[in-house]
């Protein structure tokens, strides 16, 4: 090779390195491919969030997508491009549930055999739905990352094609079609807030949005108990978390993907983290005010608005990424969300141990419009005087101000509140 050719080859290599892994053209091609496969999900206004932010807030309802989340977009895009030989070998995937269902449904539509590895403890409805779409399901490990290790071993043993949840250009391109829809549905959009785990969804959306409307701010929201992105971005490369703890299983990913990383680094304006309490409040808000069932991961973007509403310039689009939630978790999250919102009040009071004392307490609560959910007595503890009884109360209130008013009413009635 001549020196000139060598320099040219190096320049071409440098250009290839600088070229983004996914372009808006890739997303546009994916949109054509998916035209008859996915729903153009609605963009619904949220009066409650709009009032909070001080301008229009719109909910991109991917929880109403086929299989209950955005995942079918990337899964179908990736799998439709497999060769005949690859399709014959089948596909394998790892997921806590949404990617599992997306892969299983795409495989059924394309006539491909699918095997899914899911973590032990994955929500039962997600496991059962994946099976109903025709996948063979195995459970191993306690996280998506551990299940992914089993999926890779299956790939090596059987030759099945691994369909990664987020770390592939076709996956990112497919997820990016959400961004194209957002711009078509809301041309004057100023901010997009997207939950993130491995980064495939926000990377795809940012690719589409920044190419067509570079002024639109793209914000990624991550559960603080599984926030691998801030440290990874600071380090300049994907870094794995030592541990994770969050109810948002759909975004509990310990290490960002290599393909999404550069796109997120270059195109996403900010990454914020949200508390578990905010996730539960967000889920409850979607249920009560928007009549939408959203899983904790899908509510992460809403949680970001609840924590810092002034940080988002309207019109704001909030992506509700999925609605597949275990009913048992839903009940727990609702209770937690109501407590966080001041809707549940737990307290212990001490009164004289004589007839009528409990009815007196209940009368005060009734006059204060507190709904009594549970009552229990304690008589045998050294902390109590001989003539005292402790009453534990679980009450339903309308909010923090009402809860404070209830406690004040008890105190004014001479009831001693001890906790």
From TrEMBL:
It comes from the Bacteria. It holds the Pfam family PALP. Residues 346-419 form the ACT domain. Its EC number is 4.3.1.19. InterPro entries: ACT-like_dom_sf (IPR045865), ACT_dom (IPR002912), ACT_ThrD-II-like (IPR044561), Ser/Thr_Dehydratase (IPR050147), Thr_deHydtase_catblc (IPR005789), TrpB-like_PALP (IPR001926), TrpB-like_PALP_sf (IPR036052). One of its GO terms (molecular function) is threonine deaminase activity. Coiled coil: none annotated. Its cofactor is pyridoxal 5'-phosphate. Keywords: Lyase, Pyridoxal phosphate. PANTHER family: L-THREONINE DEHYDRATASE CATABOLIC TDCB (PTHR48078:SF6), THREONINE DEHYDRATASE, MITOCHONDRIAL-RELATED (PTHR48078). Belongs to the serine/threonine dehydratase family. This is threonine ammonia-lyase. The lineage of its organism: Bacteria, Bacillati, Actinomycetota, Actinomycetes, Kineosporiales.
């Amino acid at each position: 090779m001549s020196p000139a050719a060598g320099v040219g080859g190096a320049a071409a290599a440098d250009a290839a390195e600088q070229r983004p892994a996914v372009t808006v053209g890739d997303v546009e091609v994916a949109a054509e491919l998916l035209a008859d496969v996915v729903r153009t999900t609605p963009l619904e206004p949220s009066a409650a969030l709009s009032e909070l932010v001080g301008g229009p807030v719109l909910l991109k309802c991917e929880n109403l997508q086929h299989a209950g989340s955005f995942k079918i977009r990337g899964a179908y895009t990736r799998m439709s491009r497999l060769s005949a030989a690859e399709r014959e070998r089948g596909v394998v995937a790892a997921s806590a549930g949404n990617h599992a269902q997306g892969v299983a449904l795409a495989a059924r539509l394309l006539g491909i055999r699918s095997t899914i590895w899911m973590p032990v403890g994955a929500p039962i409805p997600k496991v059962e739905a994946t099976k109903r779409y025709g996948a063979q399901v195995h459970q191993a490990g306690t996280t998506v990352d551990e299940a992914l290790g089993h999926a890779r071993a299956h790939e090596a043993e059987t030759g099945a094609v691994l369909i990664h949840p987020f770390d592939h250009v076709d996956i990112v391109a497919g997820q990016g079609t959400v961004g194209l829809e957002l711009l078509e549905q809301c041309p004057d959009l100023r901010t997009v807030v997207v939950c993130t785990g491995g980064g495939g969804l926000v990377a795809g959306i940012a690719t589409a949005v920044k190419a067509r409307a570079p002024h639109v701010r793209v914000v990624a929201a991550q559960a603080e108990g599984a926030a691998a992105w801030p440290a990874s971005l600071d380090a300049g490369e994907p870094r794995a978390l030592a541990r994770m703890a969050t109810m948002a299983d759909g975004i509990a990913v310990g290490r960002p993907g290599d393909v999404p990383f550069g796109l997120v680094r270059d195109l996403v304006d900010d990454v914020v983290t949200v508390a578990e309490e905010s996730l539960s409040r967000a889920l409850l808000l979607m249920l009560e005010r928007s009549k939408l069932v959203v899983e904790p991961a899908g509510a992460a973007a809403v949680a970001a608005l609840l924590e810092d509403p002034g940080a988002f310039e309207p019109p704001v689009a909030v992506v509700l990424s999925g609605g597949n939630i275990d009913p048992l978790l839903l009940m727990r999250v609702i209770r937690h969300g109501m407590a966080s919102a001041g809707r549940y009040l737990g307290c212990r009071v001490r009164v004289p141990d004589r007839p009528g004392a409990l009815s007196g307490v209940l009368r005060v609560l009734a006059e204060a419009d507190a709904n009594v959910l549970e009552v229990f007595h304690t008589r045998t503890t050294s902390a109590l005087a001989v003539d005292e009884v402790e009453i534990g109360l679980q009450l339903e209130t309308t909010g923090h101000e009402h809860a404070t008013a209830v406690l004040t009413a008890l105190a004014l009635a001479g009831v001693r509140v001890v906790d």
